[in-house]
Structures are given as C-alpha cells and as structure tokens.
Amino acid sequence: MRDRTRLLGWLLAVAVLVAVTAASIAYGSTSIPLRTVAAAFRHFDPTVDAHLVVRTLRLPRTVVGLVVGLALGLAGAIMQGLTRNPIADPGILGVNAGAALAVVIGIHVLGVSDVHGYVWFAFLGALAASVLVYGVGSMGRDGASPVKLAIAGAAVTSLLASATTCVLLLDRVTMDQYRFWVVGSLAGRGGSVVGALLPFLATGTILALWAGRSLNTLALGDDVARGLGQRLGRARALCAAAVVLLVGAATAAAGPIGFVGLTVPHVARAIVGADHRWILAYSAVLAPILLLSADILGRAVARPSELQVGIVTAVIGAPVFVALVRRRRLAQL
C-alpha cells in the first residue's frame, strides 16, 4: 500500500474519531441535540441544565476517553512490536497487576476512597511493576530479549495478583471499594485527572512516535538490527519507558481496560502492513474510536444506568480478536 493511500485512510479515521467524539458528548442516559451541544461551547449558560451536563460531565468524560484510548493504542502497538508477541497487552509487563496491588494497598492501609487518590497509587504501582519486570528480564548476557520480558512479566504478574488477592480476602471493605475501580470506567473521571497525568502522557506519546523506526529495525532480528547500527539496549529501554508512561497513566485514569491495546494494533496492521510508523499512527486514532464507541454503547444499552466501558470493550474485543487470531497475518510479527 502506498503512503498516499495510507494517509487518506488515516484522515478518514480521524474524521470518524471526530464524529464519535461528538456522539460521546451528545448521547447518554439523556440525549442532547448537537445544536445544544454547540451552544454549550459558544454561548454557555450555567442556568441551562443541558449546558451544565455537557461542560461538567460529558466533555471531561470524553476527554478522558480520548487520551486513555490514545495511550492504550500506542502502548499496545509498541508492546507487540517490542516483544514480537502477537498477544502482548498491558498485562504482560505487569502493569495492570502492579497498579491493582498499589490501589489495594492505598485503600487498605491509608484509607484512600476516591478516584483522585487511586490515580497516583495506580500510576506508581504500574511504574514500579514495569521497572521490576524490565529489570528481571534484562538479567543475563543477552539483556532484555522478547522471550525473557514475556516470562518475567508473567512471573511478576502472578506474584502481584496473589498479593492483591490475599489483601482482598482479608478485608471486605477494601474489596467493596476496589471492585468499582478494577472493572475500568470513564465515569466520574474529571479533567483534573487528565491534567495531573498529562506530563506522563505527553512524554510517553513523544517516545512512542519516535519508536516506529526502531521497531521496524528490531523486527528484522537482533543480528540484522545490530548490523544496521541499532543500539538494541537503548532502543528497548526507550520503548519500555514509553509503554510504562502510557499504560501507567491510562490505567491510573480509568482502571484496567482490556482488549483495546491488544486488538487495535492488529486492526491497524491488517490495514497498513508491517511498517510500525503507520501502525502507531493508525493505533493512536483507532483506539479512541473503539473506547468511546464502547462507552457510548455502555450508556445506551443500560439506560438510565450504564455498563462500565471495561466490560463493553471485553464483549466487543473478544470476538474481534478471535477473528483476527484466525488470520495468518497475526503470526507475522
């Protein structure tokens, strides 16, 4: 596929993202006409309920969905390229398990009870777990090879998950609070959450956009990449740093959300081929489309209540991923 065709496809995806963003603001337990949404931005009137809903509830929720989707899409594409593992997702580097254990400790030991408190515990837990996995996976003569990272991630994830389960079994109050965070949701996440995590998201995004060319070289194999002048340790460390920052911030903002980082890179790869620069560009747009669409669907099917977006992405993502697994292209990482 030529770059011109890829660019046109990417611009079409951006147009779809704009439409889904507008729908996320307009539709929910109560639908708001698009002209009223536009008026809430151009001529905000605090005495109009619809304007308040748009500005204080729908807009922050949509912004959180956009940045979390962007982060999960980029991180998933990097993880699959870095580990050369087609089923790599945030769980493989222990990110979700580390975030979960830190949140549980925050609730159980320090009595943290709101999402703004969970954010920092989740981020620190994700960061610590990812550093631990990369440190363990880097031991030995060959450094952080894809197989060693995957094995270290699985081992650390099992250890942290066991510790989390032990705490939850001992404390029912902690269990009651933790279960609302662990399903993954965009509800109740205000703009302050995004603002607090924005430096980490911005740094991770810059590193991710840089990583495309390095991932293309690493995909040729260690010997070829080394022969082309690629510094393997430096490239892998920077890619891992991007994953830690992006997934840690996304998990801290919305809780563990599965299948977005796992499924979207495969869709992008099926569209644009094996060039990681284009895979990253497409994943950055397709992942927010999936996440916001799942959030809209969760609000529509359970009115006047709603389903958490983590549940909906699992319902949507599982059959899509199974269909992708059946394609031969999945094995060509």
Describe the structure.
The chain is mainly alpha-helical. It contains 13 helices and no strands. It has helices at residues 3-26, 34-42, 49-83, 95-110, 115-138, 146-170, 172-182, 191-218, 222-227, 232-254, 260-272, 276-301, 309-325. The longest helix is centred in the first third of the chain and has 35 residues, at 49-83. The chain starts with a helix and ends in an 8-residue tail after the last helix.
* Main sheet summary: none
Strand content: under 5%
**Which ranges are low-confidence, i.e. pLDDT below 50, for 5 or more consecutive residues?**
none
Report, as a whole number of angstroms, the end-to-end distance. 18 Å
Number of helices: 13
C-alpha geometry: globular
The Cα radius of gyration reads: 20 Å
Q: What would you call the structural class?
A: mainly alpha
The helical percent reads over 70%
What multimeric state do the chains show? Answer: single chain
Number of strands: 0
Give short descriptive properties of this protein.
single chain, 333 residues, mainly alpha, 13 helices, globular
Compact summary:
With 333 residues, this protein is mainly alpha-helical. It contains 13 helices and no strands. Helices cover 77% and strands 0% of the residues.
Helices and strands in order:
Layout: H1 3-26, H2 34-42, H3 49-83, H4 95-110, H5 115-138, H6 146-170, H7 172-182, H8 191-218, H9 222-227, H10 232-254, H11 260-272, H12 276-301, H13 309-325
Helix pairs in contact: 1-3, 1-12, 2-3, 3-8, 3-10, 3-11, 3-12, 4-5, 4-6, 4-7, 5-6, 5-10, 8-10, 8-12, 11-12, 11-13, 12-13
